[in-house]
Amino acid sequence: MRAATIAVLAPGLLALLPLAIAQVYPVTQGKTYKFEKVADGVYYATGGFGSNNVVIVNDQDVLLVDDGTTPAAARAFLDDIKVITNKPVRTVVNTHFHYDHTDGNSVFGPEVQIIAHDYVRMAITTFDVLNREPFITSQKTAVPARIDALTKQIATEKDTQKKAALQRDLAAAQTSLNQLKEIKPTPPNVTYSSKMVLYKGPREIQLLFLGRGHTGGDTVVFLPRERIVCTGDLMESRLAYMGDAFFDEWVTTLGALKNLDFALVLPGHGAPFGDKGLITAFQGYLSDITKKVADLRAQGLTADQAATRVDLTSHAKDFPQITGPGADARGVRRIYAWMDERGKK
Ligand SMILES: [Zn+2]
Predict the structure, then answer these.
(1) pTM of this structure
(2) How remote is the CA of residue 283 from the centroid of ligand 1, in Å?
(3) What is the distance in angstroms between the CA of the first residue and the CA of the last residue of the chain?
(4) Residues 102, 184: contact at Cβ < 8 Å?
(5) Distance from the CA of 225 to the center of ligand 1, in angstroms?
(6) 81 C-alpha vs ligand 1 centroid, how far in Å?
C-alpha cells in the first residue's frame, strides 16, 4: 500500500528551520510501521512498539538500524519494509544492547550481518538481559500487570461497548505476553571497537563509537554524504532511559556527536530533529540531574527518595515530558551506583 506524497522539503532547508516546526516527509504506510523518506533511500520507521528504526536502501541490499522489541515485531517490520523495497536485508546495526533495539535479532539467518559495538555482544551474552532492567519493569512485569488490571476492569464494567473495548485490549496484551515468550537474546555476529565503515554502492555508512554514555557501547550511524546521523538512545528527541548510563562521559560523548557534520538526527525514540541546540539542552539536563542527585544523596536520602524529590522542571521547556519534580527511579538508582563505582562522595 502506498500513501500519497504529502510534501517534500529541500534538504538544505532542514538546518534553517527552527526545532518547533515538525518536518514533513513523504510517507509510506505499512500495516504496522510508517516510513518517512528523509533522503534518497533513507527511511525513518515509526509506529512499532518500542524503538524507532531506520531503513537504508542501498544499490543491492538493505541495512536496518535496530530491529524491534520482539521477534514478532521484527517480522512485522520486515513484512512492512516490502512496501518500500524488495531488496534483501543483509545488515542490521544494533545501536545498543537494550531489548527494544535488539530483541528482533533472532529472526535473521546467517546471511545477515548483525553489527554492533563489542560491548553489545558482551552485554547480551553475559548480563542475563531478560532478568534485569530495563526489560523487567518495561516488559516482564508490565505486561502481566496490564493483563491483571484489564481483567479486573472487565469484571466490573457494565457498559457493553466499553467492555468490548477492554476485551480487545486484553486480547492484545495476551498476544504481547506470548510474543515476549518467544524472545531469544541474540548477540551481534560482527563487532567493532571504535569505527567501522561500510561502502554500499555510492553510499558510505559510518558506524561510530563516540565514547560511553547512554550505555557502555552505543553506536551512531552516520551518513556523511546525506548529513544524517542515527543516534539510537544516545540522543533522543526526549529524555532517554538512564539505567545503564555513564553520566559525565555521556556529556562528553554528546560533545563529540555535535562535532559531526549533520543536518538531521534520526533518534531511537521521539522524532527527527536538526537543531544541535537540543543536544546542548540534553547535556545540560544530564549535568544538572547528576549534580542535584549527588546533593540529595549527600543529605542522606535513598535513591528512591531522591527520585521523587529531584527538581528538573527548569528543563521542561526542552523536554515537555517533565511535568513536575521527580525523575525515573531507575536512572537515579544508576546515578547512585555510578557514584559508588567512581568512589565519589
Ligand atoms: Zn530504546
Answers:
(1) 0.90
(2) 18
(3) 58
(4) no
(5) 26
(6) 20
Kindly list the domain boundaries of the chain, sorted by start residue. Answer: 285-345
Instruction: Using the mean position of ligand 1's atoms as its centre, give its distance from the Cα of residue 98 in Å.
Output: 7
- Report the phi/psi class of residue 45: left, alpha or beta, with left for phi > 0 and alpha for psi in -120 to 50: beta
Output the CA 302–ligand 1 centroid distance in Å: 27
| C-alpha 120 to ligand 1 mean position (Å) | 14
Q: What is the pLDDT of residues 148-193, one digit of tens each?
A: 999 999 999 999 999 999 999 999 999 999 999 999 999 999 999 9
Q: How much of the chain is in helix, strand and coil states, percent to nearest 5? A: 40, 20, 45
Which tens digits make up the pLDDT trace of 246-303?
Answer: 999 999 999 999 999 999 999 999 999 999 999 999 999 999 999 999 999 999 999 9
Residues with C-beta atoms within 5 A of ion ligand 1: 51, 100, 233, 268
Q: How far, in Å, from the CA of 57 to the mean position of ligand 1?
A: 23
**Cis amide bond preceding 134, omega within 30:** yes
**If you measure from the C-alpha of residue 124 to the centroid of ligand 1, how many angstroms do you get, rounded to a whole number?**
15
Rounded (10°) CA dihedral 200, 205, 207, 213? -150
The Cα angle at residue 55 between residues 252 and 282, in degrees rounded to 5: 25
Tally of CB atoms within 10 A around 336:
20
Mean pLDDT throughout 92-113?
97
Q: Say how many C-beta atoms besides its own lie within 10 A of residue 271's C-beta.
A: 16
